[in-house]
Amino acid sequence: MSTPTLAELLIVACAEAWRGAGEIVATGVGPVPRLAASLAKSSHTPELLMTDGEAFLVEEPVPIGPRDYAHGRGTGYLPFSRFFDAAVWTGRRHAMVTPTQIDRFGQTNLSCLGGTYDHPKVQMLGARGFPGNSIHHPNSMFIPAHSPRVFVDGEVDMVSSVGYNPARRTPGANFGNVDLRLIVTDLCVMDFGGTDHAVRVVSLHPGVTLDQVRAATGFALETATEIATTPLPDEDELAIIARLDPHNIRGGILKGNPSAMREAAQ
Amino acid sequence: MDKTLDLRELKGRLRSGMTIGIGGWGPRRKPMALVREILRSDLEDLTVVTYGGPDAGMLCAAGKVRKLIFGFVSLDAIPLEPYFRKAREAGSLDILELDEGMLQWGLKAAAMRLPFLPTRVGLGTDVMTHGGFETVTSPYGDHEVLLAMPALKLDAALIHVQRADRWGNIQAFGPDFYYDEWFARAATETFVSAEEVVDRIEIGDAGAARANFVERMFVTGVIPAPCGAHPTSMPPDYGWDMEHLRGYVASAGEQGGWDRYVSETIGDDEAGYLDRIGGKSRVAALPLPIF
Predict the structure, then answer these.
(1) pTM over 0.90
(2) Which residues, 6 or more positions from A155, have their beta carbon under 8 angstroms from its beta carbon?
(3) Chain B: residue nearest A168 by CA?
(4) Which residue of A85, A170, A180 to mutate against B (max B Cβ within 10 Å)?
(5) Model pLDDT for residues A78-108, shown as the tens digit of each residue
(6) Which residues in B lie closer than 8 A to residue A125 (C-beta atoms)?
(7) ipTM > 0.90?
(8) Which of A163, B10, B155, B218 is spaced 20 to 30 Å from A38 by Cα?
């Protein structure tokens, strides 16, 4: 067996977000989260619901990249409107997304950066579905380049998704469904199991030190009692990933497509 | 009853200062022929409500937009819409930024003739802070505090479909109708462009009847517009035109790029536009995007 790539390790780590999640819709936005959701359904959590990336529910996860265009392969129908009605507002979904900024409360930003809100320095997509997703169902995040520009000091510039910031809690409102699970980055896996839901490191990828992660994070990080090493993919997982990504799109996601074993790569 | 309109007649049916909702989603099934007709008009001071794609960008670039009400603006495969960004980064655009679901909720409130609908969506975020939203308290035992999403009442909605008839029956054959039915119900008047307008859609195909996603009583006018979604996608007929969209995006980085796009591409009418983009046969051959 050749050494797995870091991208493959990240896909396996991200797939853990959906382990044992039950009959909910798994949504991964972007190649790594989508391959991870597909891997979860194809291995440990077959009861997950998934779409073909468009409007149809499928029981066989659809590979990413160029392929024959075929409608009607679905076993169910979940167009945009029903997505809100059935999956988002009922809480029967767990999404993994890649925001531009994350703060220590797990609040994220996808809207705009810098300047003022009326005159931002950099305009991005807008809030998209983040406000609704974050107040209604579990969410996780994938960050391909862990840096203090992503994990910012203070609050994110425009709070697009709800986190655990007590100052943002409208009195009398129901924030009971806010449920942030994992953050997988190119350096480590984090969760929200620290003091008052603080972000904490739970595993480091092979060859990564805690000091490296701290230097790449703009806020103070807590750690789990014991920090594990993120597991390497096994052969079965690698075979499933290869089948779901026949054009090796995963090989172009991280600069230089590094090995999962950083020491071995140096 | 004949609701058929010529594309040029649309301009006479719209007025400056209107609130106009635009159907479709990002770079998908946008009524671009209708948007181009607005670009060719002297309409201005518009409030535009959209799940934004090049419609939002072009209307911003042309200075037609007083206020943009949006959940996002994106070209999908090209994530960031360049002219929307330019308008925002110039500080020149009045906006109401919404969650995607809130936008739908506002249209539904308008459709149901309610002042607002309650939701948890937006609470705890800067969508609440910047949008100036108010809360309501549940009158029931839970006394939950909820965001009151105001109705997004539209003066006009613009939609693009495959087929329409003179009665205002419409059919869209792609996999998703997005929120077009709610744009139509939220609007005083709805103008639908169609790849093909026929005298009467024939009876007898239940599958095709299900492609008529909004009752014709909400359809004010139907307008023939072959390739009317271009450069956005119109499944199953044609995909989005990435080459065209890349050129459009590049124009935003060039001196005088927008004016050049208007004069060299949008031009004076749709027949000329179709010629300039390579004709119907080229559009018909655009591959459908793979997700």
Answers:
(1) yes
(2) A103, A105, A107, A165
(3) B124
(4) A170
(5) 999 999 999 999 999 999 999 999 999 999 9
(6) 72-74, 79-80
(7) yes
(8) A163
